Amino acid sequence: MNFKLFDYDAGRYAFSNETALCISEQRHLKEFGVYNFTLNANGTCNWDIDKDGVNIYYSLLSVFLLVALILSILKISLCAWRSYHYEEEVLENVAGSGTTAGTVQQRNRMRSLDVFRGMAIVLMIFVNSGGGDYWWIEHAPWNGLHLADVVFPSFLWIMGVCIPISIKSQLSRGTTKAQIAFRILWRSIKLFCIGLCLNSINGPNFENLRIMGVLQRFGIAYLMCGIIHTVFAKKDHLEPQVTWRRALYDLISFKGELMVAFALIVIHLSIVFGLHVPDCPRGYLGPGGKHANASYAGCIGGATGYIDLQILGSSHIYQHPTAKYIYDSKPFDPEGIFGCLLTIVQVLFGALTGVVILMHTDWRARITRWLLWSMFLTIITSILSEFTKESGVIPINKNLWSLSFVCATTALAFTVLSILYYIIDVRHWWTGYPFEACGMNAIIMYVGHTVMHKMLPWHWRIGAMNTHFLLLLEAVWNTLMWIGIAIYLDHINFYYSL
C-alpha cells in the first residue's frame, strides 16, 4: 500500500498528478501488526511500527500439519479395519459378488482423467470457500493468473478430453450421429438450466436474474464442441502406412476441429480489436473504472463487456466482478456470452487430448504429444503477454477469457495430465485417492457445495473470522467434508452424471 495525506478534498480519486502533503513509500502490512503514520508539525511524515506482525504463512503450515495428522489417523484406522475384515472381503470376491464387475470395469478406466477432474473440483470448493483469504489463492482482480483462475478452465478442458472418447464409444455401439447430437443437446440444456437455478439461490427475481454462469458456459461449450466433433468423427480409423502420416494421424483426423478453433480465434480477435465501442478506445482490454486515471470509466472489458451488456442487459449480468473492489468498475460477467468463443477453443484442445488417447496406445507417444502442445502454447502465451502482467498485447485475463489465458491454462492442463498419467496409469505409484472418487461425482459436489454454501456443518463462523488461521481452517473443513461425501458415494457405488 502507498499512503498519501492531503490537506484538501482531492475528490473521489487522487491520482499521481495530485499534490500530496505527505507520501509514504510502499508498505507491507502484516497480520496483527500495529502501525503509526504520523504527520509532523514541519510537514514531514513518520512511519512507525509499534508491533511487528506475524508471518501469514504460519497459518498455512499449521493447518496443513493438522490436516495431515487427521488424515494419517484416519488412514491407519481404515487400514486396520480392512485388515480385520480381509478374509470376509476375499470370500465375497471369490464368490463373484455384484461389485466385482464394477471394480474390474473401474480399473480399466484411465484413472488420471478422474483424478484430474477430482483435483479440479476439490480446488474449486476450496477457493469458493475463501481459500484462507490469501491473495494468490483468490481470483486475480483483472490481469494475472492466481490459483483460483486455473480451476474453471481445467474443468472445461477435461470435459473436452472425454468428448471424443464418449462419441467413439457410442459410434462403436451403432448409435447414429443424429442420436448422439440429440443427447449432447439434452445434456447441454440440463447443464444450462441447473446453472440458471443456482443463480436464483438468493431469490428468483426475473428482473435481475443473472443469465450466464459457470454451468451455463459448460453447457454452451459442451454443445458446440460435442456437435463439432460429432460432425467430423469417424466410426473406424485406418492407421496410415506412411511413417510421418502415422505420427501425425491424430492431427490429420482432427484437422476439421482445428480449423473451427482457428476460425473462432480469428473472429474473437477481429471483434475485440476491431469493434467500435462507444466512449472507449478501440481494442481496450482494461477494467474501466479508475483504471488509467478514470479515462474510460464505463469501458470495463472493452468489446467483451459491451457485447454482453447489449445482449443480456445490465440487470442480468454479474454485479460484483473482482475488478469492482479495486478499480470501482461497473458490472461485468466473467462467464458472459462473448467469452464462450475462446472457451469453445479451450474445450476443443481438450478434445484433441482425447483423440491422442484413442489413436496412440503407447504412453510415451501420448505424453510426448501432450508436452509438445504444452510447450507450443507456453511460447504463444509468452509472445502475447510479453512476459509481463499488464503490458502485453493480450494480457492473461480470466475475466475476458483472453487468448493468452486460454493458452496458459491449457498448457498447464497438458502438463498436469502428463504427470498424473505417468504416476497413476503408467507407474502405478499412486491410486489417485481420494481425488478419483471426487472426479467421478463432480456434478454432485459442485451443486451441493453451491446450495449448502451457508449451512452447517459445511460452513461455520466463530467471532469476527478475520484471521488467516480461522478462515483457512473453515475452508479446509468444508473441502474435507465434501471429499468425505465423495468417498462415501464411491464406497456405495453411487455415481451421477447428466
From TrEMBL:
InterPro entries tied to this protein: HGSNAT_cat
Keyword Kinase: no
A Pfam family of this chain: HGSNAT_cat
Alphabetical keyword list: Membrane, Transmembrane, Transmembrane helix
Organism the protein comes from: Stomoxys calcitrans
Domain Heparan-alpha-glucosaminide N-acetyltransferase catalytic: 109-230
Alphabetized PANTHER family for the sequence: LD22376P
Transmembrane segments: 56-74, 115-137, 143-163, 184-202, 214-233, 254-277, 336-358, 370-388, 400-423, 430-449, 469-489
Name listed for the protein in its UniProt record: Heparan-alpha-glucosaminide N-acetyltransferase catalytic domain-containing protein
